[in-house]
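Trying the structure run again after the queue cleared.
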Amino acid sequence: MQAATDKLVVLVTRGIDSELSSVAFTIANGGLTAGLKVSMFLTSTAIDLVRKGGQRLTQVAPLEPLAALIEDFQKRGGVIWACPPCVKSRGYEQADLLDGVIIVGASAMHAEIKEGAATLSF
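Done. Tokens:
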């Protein structure tokens, strides 16, 4: 049995082409509502979710628009990490990403997991 935790790390590998990106942010927002400290680590095509304007390219009814889900997540204290090689491979820089997105390696995610964070992957 796993010990209780107040942290959740969500790993997202799907981008604007997948409904799973909206599902991931919906569940992450639910975690915040439940009182969890939620961090999201974006890799692969998920980087496009936080490229300025990218989040406006997808909507999965009946879920809220992805842009609104991300904005709500950040306003409520959720943390978004972006994989450095994934950002670089797309030719993006910090200025290309939404404000508040942190370009950082997987070590940030691993530190949360070592402290007992629950994990989900999309």
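The first strand starts at residue 7 and ends at 12. Worth checking whether this holds up in the mutant runs.
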